[in-house]
Amino acid sequence: MKIRATLSLFLSLVLLTLAGCGNQDNLSEGKTDEQIAADYVQALGYTIVAHEGEATKYTLEQKTLENLDYMQLWGVQKQKPDAYFGKDIVTYPFIVKGHPLEQQYSPDDHRICVAVMLVDSKVIGGTSVPLSKVKNLVMVGGAYSIEGKTLKEVKGLNYAEWLEHWKKTYGNVTE
């Protein structure tokens, strides 16, 4: 009888564990892309002050990467853009508090905006930028990674080295 009870308890624990693991894979099931992006921002430890809604949606093509804005965005990503050619990328920006850029840019004068990029409802990266509270302008210097790292910190190259590599890989730069 003891063996039967022990076996029953063991099987129950195994089933509970499997059910728990299965649920981890489905955490984003039923959530909107914006909710998935917000969860990601909060998982990074940032407090969301404002949701800005869907900002951009585009299909990534090689030609897209010749545009300076997209170059800067992809320059601070850990992964290369190549895996996402032909994919629809949607971006959701959030105004946050508790971001590392607040050490550089006073919260009295700036707000920090993080933008999360998703493909097929999966987070693939993002950026962060300080915005001036005076004119709501992006500060000079381009985007940072979503964690507030510079291009050099992410890629290990200074801007000139990175730009030369970028041109060889993705073509000429256009505005």
From TrEMBL:
Residues 1-19 form the signal peptide. Keywords: Signal. It comes from the Bacteria. This is DUF4830 domain-containing protein. The lineage of its organism: Bacteria, Bacillati, Bacillota, Bacilli, Bacillales.
